[in-house]
Structure formats: C-alpha cells, structure tokens
Amino acid sequence: MNRKILRYYHPSLRKKAQKTETGEKTDKIIETMKKTLCEEGGVGLAAPQIGVLERIIVIDLGQQVDVFLNPEIIERSEETIQSKEGCLSLKGVWLDVTRSKKIRVKALTREGEEIEVEAEGLLAVVFQHEIDHLNGKLFIDRVSFLTKARAFLSYFFKRND
Ligand code: ZN
C-alpha cells in the first residue's frame, strides 16, 4: 500500500470513495493512515489521500487518534465558522474556509459499533474537511476563484512558507 500522500492534482482525490467494512483489510488501512498522519503531522487524514478509495477518516487533535468508518453528517447548524485550513495534499496553502459551526456525525468505529458524535469548532471543521475528501472534494473548492488563484500563484512561485 502506498503510504505517500497524494498531491492535490492526483485524480484519486477527485473520486467518490466507497463504503468500507470492518475487518482485517480495513485495520491494515487504518494502521497505515495513523502512521502516515503521525509522520506528516496533520490533524486529519482521509483514505483517498493515500490512494485508498474507501470511506475511512482518522482525526488527531493532539490527544488521541480517532478512527471513523463511513462517516456521515446527519445534522448541521445554520451558524457558520470561518477558519484557516490547510491540507496534507496541498502543503503550504492556508485558506479561510467557511463551514458549519456545529455538526452531528454518524459513523462506525473500527469494531463496527454505530456511534454519533456532536462536533463543534475545530473538530467540526476537521470532520467536514475529511468527509469532503471522501466525496472527491478539496478545501480549495470552497473558496472564491480569486482566492484560489492567489493561493496557487504563491504555491508555485514562492514555495517559502
Ligand atoms: Zn485535506
């Protein structure tokens, strides 16, 4: 399995990931994702970022690494939050993205137990960013054309941040 993180132009990052199932194969993917996230030092990673088109995300806000299979947003607040987002598939680019402030997520644990999580603030942002990856969407799709163009210019010509 490829442990390298795919860059934003890779076609796999634009595909919709399939539902996953618990089991040995999924456990292996999860272990690879955890190691990759730890090495790269991000707050979240989605399986398509390592070339696996399955609905698996891992989140690490500093305390522990949480794993969610087939995560789905079942409720979202009208209130939004704007924060600077980055992505391991597009390193060095930080953009203000507007997301729902509070969400409720339904998912399976790696043991197959169905859970619901209420997330707010940073956790809500990370969930929305990672679930976007499962649907072939990147954070740069959620900003204006101008903001995106500026970000790419600095990404290609400066590369110093
Ligand atoms: Zn990302």
Report on this model:
By secondary structure, the chain is of the alpha+beta class. The protein has one domain (11-158): Peptide Deformylase (Alpha-Beta Complex), CATH 3.90.45.10. 27% of the residues lie in helices and 33% in strands. The protein contains three helices and seven strands; from the N terminus they run H-E-E-E-E-E-E-E-H-H. It has helices at 24-40, 122-134, 145-157; strands at 44-46, 56-60, 65-76, 80-87, 90-100, 102-108, 114-120. Strands 1-2-3-6-7 form a five-stranded antiparallel sheet. Strand 2 and strand 3 (65-76) form a beta hairpin. The longest helix has 17 residues, at 24-40. The radius of gyration is 15 Å and the shape is globular. The model has no long low-confidence stretch (mean pLDDT 94). Zinc ion (ZN) binds at residues 87-89, 129, 133. Zinc ion is lined by residues 87-89, 129, 133.
Architecture (CATH level 2) name? Alpha-Beta Complex
- The CATH topology is given as Peptide Deformylase
**How large is the count of helical segments?**
3
Largest sheet: 5 strands, antiparallel
Side-by-side strand order of the widest sheet: 1-2-3-6-7
Secondary-structure-derived class: alpha+beta
* Principal-axis shape: globular
Secondary structure: number of strands:
7
Q: Tell me the radius of gyration.
A: 15 Å
C-alpha end-to-end distance: 30 Å
Q: Indicate the low-confidence ranges by residue numbers.
A: none
CATH superfamily: Peptide deformylase
Mean of pLDDT: 94
**Amount of helix:** 25-40%
Query: Which series of helices and strands comes N to C?
Result: HEEEEEEEHH
What is the beta-strand fraction? 25-35%
